[in-house]
Every structure is written in structure tokens, then in C-alpha cells.
């Protein structure tokens, strides 16, 4: 379609009853609703021809950078009476902490670890996941949303109990990408 045909089609669609474009005042009203309702994590509007708007809750300001992994300090070994020369040999250096990646909830809802009650969970500690693999379901507004892993690795921690409510951005799983 050329630009003139697109414009003509838009004018025809604009005259169809019940069909309306997304207006700025509507987006502003939805942003206000998001600000007033902490239980809503994001709002997505989809229009005709793939147009749309996504409004997502932020924590305010700029996102916080991830905190570095800190190794616990080992207590100093008491010095032997004879001085450093007679001190016991140093123990093997502790292995550095593995940087785990997190799978976070993309929405507010209820976490379900398995496809149905009594079924085997999608992912549990020790499960190897690959990108695109379903790891859980989050029910939001009576819609079951399958949550997929964005990266591969081994599940080291499941941070949520089955059927527990979750918030937007809450950590669901910790994954060892090198596992």
C-alpha cells in the first residue's frame, strides 16, 4: 500500500462505529490508574494493524544496578605463639560465588509451579532449563500466562511457593548459567 491508500483506509476505519484510535488522554488516564493501583504491574493496549501502547510500573527514578556478590569474610586465624613462621598452613582459598541469574515475574498474579494440581513442577532445584522453556505459570485476571526462561542453566533456587501471590519484578527462580 502506498501512503495515500493507507491514509484513505485510516479515514474509512475512523468512521466505523466502535473503532477508535488510541488517544493521548486515554494513555494518560491509564498511567494514572497504574499509579493509583499498586496491584497492577503493567497495562498493554493493542490496536488494529499491530499498533499498541505498553505502560509498565517502575520503581521510580532510574533502575538500581545489581548489587555485586560479596563473599563473607573469614575470621582471622589466631596467630601461633611462635609468630607467623609457626602458623598453620593456610586453608584452601574459598571458591568465588557463582553469579546466579534471576527469572523475575513480569506481572502481578498467582504463581503456579506445575501445569495442574498434583502434576510434576515445570522446574525445580537441579532442573536444567533452556531459553524458551516454560518454567511456571502466573495467573493474572483469570488468564494463565506461561513464563519462559530467557536463558539456559540449572535451577539453583525456587524463590516462590506454589499458589503464592507474586508482584511485578519479584524473583521466581535463581539460575546458574554455568551449571
Features:
26% strand, 15% helix, 2 helices, four-stranded antiparallel β-sheet, 179 residues, 10 strands, OB fold (Dihydrolipoamide Acetyltransferase, E2P), alpha+beta
Describe this entry's structure for a reader.
The chain folds into two domains: 3-56, no CATH class; 98-176, OB fold (Dihydrolipoamide Acetyltransferase, E2P), CATH 2.40.50.100. It has helices at 3-15, 24-36, and strands at residues 42-46, 52-56, 101-104, 109-112, 128-129, 134-140, 143-148, 153-158, 165-166, 171-176. The two termini are 51 Å apart. It has a four-stranded antiparallel sheet with strand order 3-10-8-5, with no helix packed on it. It has 179 residues and is α+β, with helices and mostly antiparallel strands.
Quick gist of this model?
The protein has two helices and ten strands; from the N terminus they run H-H-E-E-E-E-E-E-E-E-E-E. The chain is of the alpha+beta class and 179 residues long. It has a four-stranded antiparallel sheet, with no helix packed on it. It has a four-stranded antiparallel sheet with strand order 7-6-4-9, with no helix packed on it. Strands 1-2 form a two-stranded antiparallel sheet.
